[in-house]
Fold this sequence. Notes:
single chain; alpha/beta; Rossmann fold; 7-stranded mixed beta sheet; 6 helices; 34% helix
Amino acid sequence: MTTLTGFSNITTREINPTGAYNSVLVIDDNAADRLIFRQMIQQSNFAKKILEADSAKSVIDWLMTFGKKPDETVPGFIFLDLMMPEMSGFEFLDAFARLPSAIKIRCRIIVFSASPDVLNRKKVLQHKTVYDYFSKPLKVEYFIQILRDFKLV
Length: 153
C-alpha cells in the first residue's frame, strides 16, 4: 500500500494483475466498508489497482490535479458512499460535475448506500456520470454484473 503524494488519505494498492480495469477508486469514510470493497473487487477480478479514500473532498482536490502528473490515470470507476462527513456523496457528485470533461468522460460513478431511500436513489441517478446505485451490504454479484454490462466477462 502506498499513499498518493500530497494526498495522505488516498492510498493505492495493486490487487490483481489480470483485473478488467486498470484502476478503481473507493470513497468511503468507513474503513471496514473499504476493506469489504477491496475484497469484492479482488474476488470479481474487477481491477488491477484500487485507490481508497476516506474523504470525498480530498478526491475532488486530487482529481483537479490531473494532467499535471503524467503517470496518473483517471480511475475507470469511482465507488462512492453517499453518507459521509465533511463532503457527502451528493456534494461530491455536484463538485464532480464541475470537473473538466476530460476527467468525467473517463470515469463512471457507482453510488453505494446503506440507506434504502428511493428519493436518494432517484436524485443520484439524475447525475449524468452516475452509472448505478446499489444498496449495502455489498455483494460480489454487483461487481460481476457491472463487468457483464460492459461485456468484460
